[in-house]
Amino acid sequence: MLQDREIAILIEELYKYHGYDFSGYSAASFRRRVERLYTMDGFTDFSDFLSRARSDEDYFKHLVEEITVNVTEMFRDPSFYRTLRTEILPILATKPFIRIWHAGCATGEEVFSVAILLKELNVLHKSLLYATDLNPAVLEIAKKGLFPLRTIQQYAENYRIASGKNDFSDYYIANYGFAKFSDELIDRMVFSQHNLVIDGSFNEFDLILCRNVLIYFDKDFQRIALELFDQSLSKLGYLALGTKETIKFSSIQHRFKQFEKEKIWKKMI
């Protein structure tokens, strides 16, 4: 077990040497993942671990991949996607152009899910999906639109429950154990590295999705991220969070009205 002082030193050094600020991450989650990495990579001396994290760029990338949370799936929480399909996207479809931001997109499954909905509503051609994450390694995966075939059965079932209109296999080609999703979807996506705590707003969006990311932040980091989303949303735009996340008691709550279904808020002022 690492000492509290060692965890604090690690956070300080990662920020000093690499500019990554993990100080606002859930302390328990951060400690658990660091200790798992420390053991998995065979370290017995903290100074060796710290030195490697500071000076070895490849190892630092490996550390970020292990610490950041990248659990996701296509059409996760199907009822959420049904609500997007029937209640939210038809309203956005009346706009001349639709901008959507997936913050903390991980390997991109949810980005492709929304792109499929947009295509089925015949508005993909006038939409742009910005997908960002702190971890550059997962962005490289997301850009390829390649997902293991072993996951596709579950994704197809989620799609069906989310009121999918077509055969799910219409959207990908199976090859060598992977499902390669259509370039028509990928062409409407922009992938970029972005830190929700340090980096600022970069566009005005009609819909921002940041699902199951804020639960890993402390209160201060949550406040910073929510204020960034407020700055980045157009008036009457929508903010979608994860099932265990909320803007209640936040500094932006008075500017939003919660949608009747799911964790979706509409910006009113």
Descriptive notes:
The protein is an alpha/beta fold. It folds into 2 domains: 4-67, Chemotaxis Receptor Methyltransferase Cher, domain 1 (Orthogonal Bundle); 78-267, Vaccinia Virus protein VP39 (Rossmann fold, 3-Layer(aba) Sandwich), CATH 3.40.50. Helices cover 43% and strands 19% of the residues. The chain contains 10 helices and 10 strands. The chain starts with a helix and ends with a strand.
Lateral arrangement of strands in the main beta sheet:
6-2-1-7-8-10-9
Write down the oligomeric state: single chain
Label the overall shape.
globular
CATH class of the largest domain: Alpha Beta
Tally of distinct domains: 2
Structural category is: alpha/beta
Largest β-sheet summary: 7 strands, mixed
Count of helix runs:
10
How are the elements arranged and paired?
Layout (H helix, E strand, L loop, with lengths): L3 H15 L8 H14 L5 H10 L1 H11 L10 H15 L5 E6 L5 H12 L6 E7 L2 H9 L1 E3 H13 L10 E4 L2 E4 L1 H4 L2 E5 L11 E6 L8 H14 E9 L14 E3 L5 E4 L2
Parallel strand pairs: 1-2, 1-7, 2-6, 7-8
Antiparallel strand pairs: 3-5, 4-5, 8-10, 9-10
Helix pairs in contact: 1-3, 3-4, 5-6
